[in-house]
Each structure stands twice: as structure tokens, then as C-alpha cells.
Design goal:
It is built from 2 helices and 22 strands. It has about 375 residues and is mainly β. The protein is elongated, with a radius of gyration of 26 Å.
Length: about 375
């Protein structure tokens, strides 16, 4: 940005940084770069002085684009084929892709080709929205220095960064499908995920499974989720809260195996679980999760099978859950729970002669529940 001839690199109002400047509806700073720009190192991968640009699968229709290979040569593509370029010498090159027509048919799956190991950085995503980013950068050893957001017409980022050893600088705009997106990923550094709007995500299935995620997701709020299955399965590195994440507004949400074999203890106190219908293996083999779930609403849950199996559920929490989940008022339940629900509370014990025993008897004898626990105390 300039004021007169003076360059302003970090504009602020008072102490507040200015990220974007508009005149009317038009963004004028920072400049919008339309190209998809990425950097390659030809010495990586097979070591040959070539790069195979393969946009992967297309939806119905054609797409035209121009590739600037970063060595003063360009290729205009008007057919749905990959383009192989040979460089005169080994080195690092910035490749720019400018789409001239057919953007809605664009699928950015090219880094599944044999040359994906040569990609070292994404410098700009561009203003184009690919039809899908399914498996686009799976296994790539890339950093992302781009300051703009990765966006997709469909919102499909399934397996986009699956098994990437290091995730740096990724910003995703309005995702819908995050299935396996960061599964098996290594370190997460300055990803930009903290501010990602996940309100309309339908699937988080295995999103971070067995990854090293430790980015603050405490501001994530979701209303359209149908599955959170295995979202944090096997995760041990996470140290923040998940305060408001689960808020599905449609019946049928699946929270099964969500923290299976994980070993962290997030705050989930503000979750709205009324529309969750399965908690199967929710905390199975999770030795660290001891947060209070008394606020959970399980009225529509048809299974709690293995929910707390091999989890350090305390006697007091177990007794509290029996009372709060049924809305027990001392003599009867005030909440309507499902019949014939299998429920596993590991070795936790109810209070003999207390309200928790009354609730347990009600669940077994009146609603036909099958309860596994440590007996009475």
C-alpha cells in the first residue's frame, strides 16, 4: 500500500492491524493475484529436470488454462490432458497457472501425479475455486506461504492434506467435507485453521485421526455436522479446548469413536448433543478424558456401546450422568430416552440405595437398557 510515494507495509488503525482495504465492494489492498502459484524443486522426487502438471479428474465439460513454467516459457492448454515440461537445468521454479475458461470444471488433483514430491510451496491459491480438492496434496512435503484462502465450489477437501508430514500456513474457506483431510499429518505450524469457518461442515470423519494436531480449535462451531466419527481418534498432542464444536441442528449426527484411543482432555461443556444418535466407542481406550459430560443430552441416542470402555470414568461422574441424562427428579425421569440402549460405563459404580441405583433400575427394567458397569458401592 502507498500513500503518495511512501510504501506502507503494515498499516494499522491505532494498534489494530489492517488486513484488507476496499473501495466500495472492490478489494484494493493487498492486490488480488488470480493465478495459482506453486514452487517446485526438480532435484526432488525422481530428480529429473521435468514437471508433470496433471489437473487430475474433471467434471463434465472442458477447461482452458495457461501455464507459466517459471523459465520464460508457457503452455496453453485447451484439452483435458496433463502437460509435461522439461527444464534446461535442475533448480527451483515458480509455476503459475491462469485459467481462462471452464473454472467450474477445475479439479486440483494434480499433486497425486509422480511429481508431487517436487512441490515445496504454494505461494498463491488464486481467486479460482476448484470443483473439488479431493486428495490434492496427499502425502506432499509442502509448506504454504500463500496468504489467501483455499476455496472449492463444492467445499470438498476430503483427504486434501492426508499424510502430509508438515502442515504450514493452510487456510481453508467455507469447507463442507473435511473427511480425512489432515489424517496422519505431522506437525502443524501457523496453519490458519484457528479462524476457519466450519459452521456448515457435514463430515468431520477422521479429519485429524492419528495426526499431531495442536492448533487452537476452541473457536470452531459446527451446526450441520452429520458425522464426527473418529475426528480425533488416536490424537495425543492436542492441548486446547473444543468448547462449542458440536452443535448439530439435524437429527442423526454420529459421534462414534470420536476420541477413540486419544489421550487428551478437552473442554466440551457447551456441546449441544440433542441430535446425536450414537456415542458408540466415544471414549474407548482413552485414558486421559475425564471432563464432565453431565450437560450432554442423550435423548435421541440409540447406542452408548463401549462409550466409556477402558476409560477412567469415576464413580461420582457415572452417578451424575445417570441422574442428569435422565433428568431424574428424585422419583422419575423427566427426559424421554430411547428404549433398548446398550451402555458401557467401564468399571464405574453406582450408589447402592441412592438415586443412581434408582435410575439404573429404571433404565434396565422400564426402558430395557443393557448396562455394563462395576456394580454397586
Amino acid at each position: 500500500m502507498k500513500i503518495g510515494n511512501l510504501d506502507i507495509t503494515n498499516p494499522k488503525i491505532g494498534t489494530t492491524p489492517i488486513n484488507k482495504v476496499y473501495i466500495g465492494a472492490n478489494q484494493v489492498w493487498p492486490n488480488i493475484v488470480n493465478e495459482f502459484i506453486f514452487q517446485i524443486d526438480t532435484s526432488l522426487g525422481d530428480g529429473l529436470n521435468t514437471f508433470d502438471f496433471n489437473p487430475g479428474h474433471y467434471t463434465a465439460g472442458s477447461i482452458d488454462y495457461v501455464i507459466d513454467w517459471g523459465d520464460s516459457s508457457t503452455t496453453t492448454v485447451t484439452t483435458n490432458t496433463n502437460s509435461i515440461h522439461t527444464y534446461s537445468s535442475s533448480g527451483v521454479y515458480d509455476i503459475k497457472v491462469f485459467i481462462t475458461s471452464g473454472i467450474s470444471n477445475y479439479d486440483l488433483n494434480q499433486f497425486r501425479c509422480p511429481d508431487y514430491l517436487k512441490v515445496v510451496d504454494v505461494k498463491n491459491w488464486g481467486s479460482y475455486s476448484g470443483a473439488t480438492f479431493y486428495q490434492s496434496f496427499r502425502g506432499s512435503r509442502l509448506i504454504v506461504s500463500a496468504i489467501d484462502e483455499l476455496q472449492s465450489i463444492s467445499g470438498n477437501f476430503s483427504e486434501c492434506f492426508y499424510a502430509c508430514p508438515n502442515i504450514t500456513g493452510v487456510k481453508i474457506k467455507n469447507p463442507i467435507n473435511l473427511t480425512n483431510t489432515f489424517r496422519y499429518c505431522g506437525s502443524f505450524i501457523g496453519t490458519g485453521l484457528e479462524t476457519c469457518n466450519v459452521e456448515n461442515v457435514i463430515s468431520f470423519e477422521s479429519c485429524f485421526q492419528q495426526s499431531s494436531i495442536n492448533v487452537d480449535l476452541s473457536n470452531w462451531v459446527n451446526y450441520k455436522g452429520l458425522t464426527y466419527k473418529s475426528m480425533f481418534r488416536g490424537v495425543s498432542s492436542y492441548t486446547y479446548g473444543l468448547d462449542n464444536l458440536v452443535q448439530p441442528d439435524t437429527l442423526g449426527a454420529d459421534c462414534s469413536t470420536m476420541f477413540y484411543q486419544a489421550s487428551f482432555n478437552p473442554d466440551v461443556s457447551n456441546w449441544n448433543t440433542l441430535n446425536v444418535d450414537t456415542f458408540r466407542s466415544f471414549l474407548l481406550l482413552n485414558s486421559s478424558f475425564v471432563s464432565d459430560l453431565s450437560n450432554f443430552n442423550i435423548e435421541n441416542a440409540w447406542t452408548l456401546q463401549q462409550m466409556f470402555q477402558s476409560n477412567p470414568l469415576t464413580d461420582s461422574l457415572y452417578q451424575s450422568y445417570l441422574i442428569s441424562w435422565t433428568g431424574w427428579n428424585g422419583t422419575t425421569a423427566t427426559k424421554t430416552l430411547q428404549n433398548n440402549v446398550p451402555a458401557h460405563f467401564h468399571n464405574a459404580k453406582y450408589e447402592l440405595g441412592g438415586q443412581s441405583e434408582d435410575v439404573r433400575n429404571y433404565l434396565i427394567n422400564t426402558l430395557g437398557w443393557t448396562i455394563t458397569d462395576g456394580g454397586g458401592i
